[in-house]
Amino acid sequence: MSNILALARPEIVALKAYSHASWDPAFDRLHANELPWRAETDHSQAGLNRYPEPHPHVLAQRLAKLYGVEDAQLLPGRGSDESIDLLVRGFCRAGIDNVIICPPTFGMYAVAARIQGAAVREVPLVSPDYSLDTAGVLAARDANTRIVFLCSPNNPTGNAMAPADIESLLVELADKALVVVDEAYIEFSGDASLTRALSRFPNLVVLRTLSKAYGLAGARVGSLIAQPEIVSLLAKVIPPYSIPQLTIEAVLATLGEVQLAIQRERVAQVRVERERLRAALATCKPVQKIWPSVANFLLVDFTAPEAVLAAARAAKLLIRDMRNVSPSSLRISVGTPEQNDRLIRSLA
After folding, report:
1. Does domain 258-347 have CATH number 3.90.1150.10?
2. How far is 310 from 319, CA to CA, in rounded Å?
3. Going residue by residue through the chain (348 aa), what tens digit of pLDDT does each one get?
4. Is the peptide bond before 327 cis (omega within 30 degrees of 0)?
5. Positive or negative, the Cα torsion across 180, 194, 208, 130?
6. What distance in Å separates the CA atoms of residue 335 and residue 270, rounded to the nearest whole number?
7. What residues contact 22, with CB distance under 8 A and at least 6 apart?
């Protein structure tokens, strides 16, 4: 057993995974209690009357190629949410262990921990730029801290954490806790992924998703990227057949070279629109401050946020109320040029 698996729940390490029916598309299947005919409305390639591959290796291989990692280092799941849940279930003992989060940040880290019965310790990001408080994280950690969750670029603030700060935590927490870096928005930043550091830091876990830059939020596909021991452990916890056949087919089509080129162009367009929207908002009277962002959204402070929300709704636009972050903050996702123009007009 590696030092990293010594952090995992012993009962998960000892768990025998569910034994699913064998899967081989070259054979006619009379072993999985499926209906032998397709539904008339079924236009999938493989047939929805059949279970998908229990753990979709072809999908995992394609995602590993996309992210530049080894096949054994990647576990596909239903969005990053499932990866977060798997990590907490695999490493946190209910009523004993804890996780550290750095608010304001993505809410599912705390929700998943509390569902599992793990305590949540908060080390807020540091004003005035929402930077990572590495000393605070180390001070908050104890012998039962199993996971430190970091989001970079951070949601909802939009800023990226300094890689040197993250790496310093990885060094200090080696063999003591996992450092999970959620890179859901990294494509919009142009920064390099921390997956390049996997060989140096056994306690590093990186989360990636197709929901943002690849336009597949409705398909619900994320990737947990870590040491093979961590991937193998959590593969025992994830249910078989968790990713539907239609999703697998949609993802493989979207990750073709032609479509990938289109997606790269769209990411570039979002970055251009982000800066155009930032410049336009800076001239709007209700705007107090626009926080720096390398994601596909802007966190903006307004003098009258309730009125801004109402004005956006009147223009048939939804923006996110983030007054739990600060009393005047709203989060605006970068839309199409027409949608962005409509928002700007609504604030005039």
Report:
1. yes
2. 10
3. 358 999 999 999 999 888 777 778 788 888 888 888 899 998 988 888 888 888 899 999 999 999 999 999 999 999 999 999 999 999 999 999 999 999 999 999 999 999 999 999 999 999 888 999 999 999 999 999 999 999 999 999 999 999 999 999 999 999 999 999 999 999 999 999 999 999 999 999 999 999 999 999 999 999 999 999 999 999 999 998 889 999 999 999 999 999 999 999 999 999 999 999 999 999 999 999 999 999 999 999 999 999 999 999 999 999 999 998 889 999 999 999 999 999 999 998
4. no
5. positive
6. 8
7. 31
Would you kindly state where each structural domain of the chain is located, as residue ranges?
Answer: 5-255, 258-347
Same CATH fold assignment for domains 5-255 and 258-347: no
Q: Do strands 329-333 and 320-321 pair parallel, antiparallel, or not at all (unpaired)?
A: antiparallel
Class of domain 5-255: alpha beta
Bridge partners for 100 per DSSP: 121, 148
pTM comes to 0.93
